[in-house]
Design a protein that fits this description.
The chain is an alpha+beta fold. Helices cover 49% and strands 15% of the residues. Strands 3-4-5-7-6 form a 5-stranded mixed beta barrel. The chain starts with a helix and ends with a strand.
């Protein structure tokens, strides 16, 4: 006995079909549901068709279900057909074999139409009943249509699997960046061009990948059902487009990539302004997060390489010090006595934004460094300029300074010319 829930599910499906097509016989609705995606629906359809074996359409649908992928559905349909006795039984079996071969061949629409035109005239000879001939035609049409749609679905799955192995690169001549972008997008909408695409050079692949590197969100991409023939020229300057975002920081993101993404969303059939707004906000938030993360990682990397973030923790005796960029607040020329000789030095007052410290280095090495420049020091050490041997407190022993070691280096970051 069938489970009540399964019967209720089938009944709802039948009511749905009835709403779609008024005046259609129940047998035709059952034939249509023989191709339902739910195996439980197909199973209940088989059982229901067992009560209608006097109608040739029911027998034809059961023949289709006898080769079902689901074992339970297949077994049920075969058992029902074993008890079927009719003068036309042999003809039905022939049709069943034909449709089974049709599935295995996976032929295209044109070939199916040829097979159909060859087969239909034979119905006159196969069936003894004129009633059978009349009623079978629409059902056979439905089986052809369903077989074709299954074939297309299976082929699209195969193409999707192939796409993960082969990258789609369109055949491109020497055109503008816009044309290259257009060709790349068109190729992604037409996987059938795979054979032509795989013949292109590595240079073309690299070029296109650089232009079209941002994937669309999956939920939006699925909505696009028409090929893109052109992308409008950007006539408005970038400065004008960004007027509404003047308060936001300028970020190093490719405008072409953002424009491509925004345009594809804008031409999506059925897209709403609220959807575009939502995607715009999501992209802005995502970009902000990426920038924050980038600076965080950069700082961490610099610290791993020995760059100190603050000057406040420096003590006498520290060596091999590397710094992050320090601002040059002042540049002075001084003479320091060494071995009873006055040696010219440059005294740079450097700051990390909170703490400032004098940095002494050979005058020649300081050439070109100006106030407001930023410098990165590699290989410095900390000491007093003039040490007071009688001082009791650390703060009274002398001025704490940075000095450049013999192998030390300075990198200048120029902010103002």
């Amino acid at each position: 006995m069938a489970h009540p829930k399964k019967i209720d599910k089938l009944q709802k499906k039948l009511e749905l079909e009835a709403n779609k097509e008024e005046g259609v016989e129940e047998i035709d609705k059952l034939v249509s549901l023989a191709f339902d995606e739910d195996p439980q629906i197909r199973l209940e359809v088989a059982k229901r068709l067992a009560e209608k074996l006097d109608d040739p359409r029911a027998v034809l649908a059961l023949l289709e279900l006898s080769s079902d992928k689901n074992k339970e559905v297949q077994t049920t349909a075969k058992n029902i057909l074993e008890n079927y006795n009719s003068p036309d039984k042999e003809a039905f079996v022939s049709l069943g074999k034909f449709f089974e071969e049709l599935k295995e061949k996976q032929i295209d629409q044109e070939e199916i139409q040829k097979e159909k035109s060859l087969m239909l005239p034979q119905i006159e000879k196969l069936f003894t009943s004129n009633k059978a001939k009349e009623k079978l035609l629409p059902s056979i049409d439905k089986i052809f249509e369903k077989t074709l749609s299954k074939t297309k679905k299976e082929k699209s799955v195969l193409v999707a699997q192939t796409e993960t192995i082969e990258k789609e690169i369109p055949k491109i001549e020497e055109h503008s960046v816009k044309d290259k972008l257009h060709a790349d997008l068109q190729a992604k909408e037409k996987p059938a061009q795979m054979e032509e695409l795989t013949t292109q050079s590595q240079n073309q692949k690299q070029e296109i990948n650089e232009i079209a590197s941002i994937p669309l969100p999956q939920e939006i991409k699925q909505k696009i059902d028409s090929p893109i023939f052109s992308i409008p020229k950007i006539e408005q300057p970038l400065e004008e487009i960004e007027e509404e975002n003047q308060e936001q920081e300028s970020i190093p993101v490719s405008f072409l990539e953002i424009y491509k993404r925004a345009y594809l969303l804008a031409i999506t059939p059925g897209i709403k302004a609220s959807d575009l707004n939502k995607e715009k906000k999501r992209l802005i938030n995502e970009t902000k997060k990426n920038i924050t993360l980038a600076f965080k990682l950069a700082l961490k990397k610099a610290q791993q390489e020995g760059g100190i973030e603050s000057l406040s923790g420096l003590k006498v005796g520290m060596k091999k010090i590397n710094t992050l960029p320090l601002e040059v607040i002042e540049v002075l020329e001084v003479n320091i006595e060494k071995n009873k000789k006055q040696i010219p030095y440059s005294k740079l007052i450097v700051s990390d934004g909170k703490t400032s410290l004098p940095f002494y280095l050979d005058k020649k090495k300081a050439e070109g460094i100006k106030k407001t420049d930023h410098i990165v020091i590699k290989g410095a050490y900390v000491d007093y300029l003039l040490k007071n041997p009688y001082a009791q407190k650390e703060s009274e022993k002398g001025e704490l300074c940075l000095f450049l070691s013999k192998k030390g280096q300075i990198n200048i970051i120029r902010t103002n010319e």
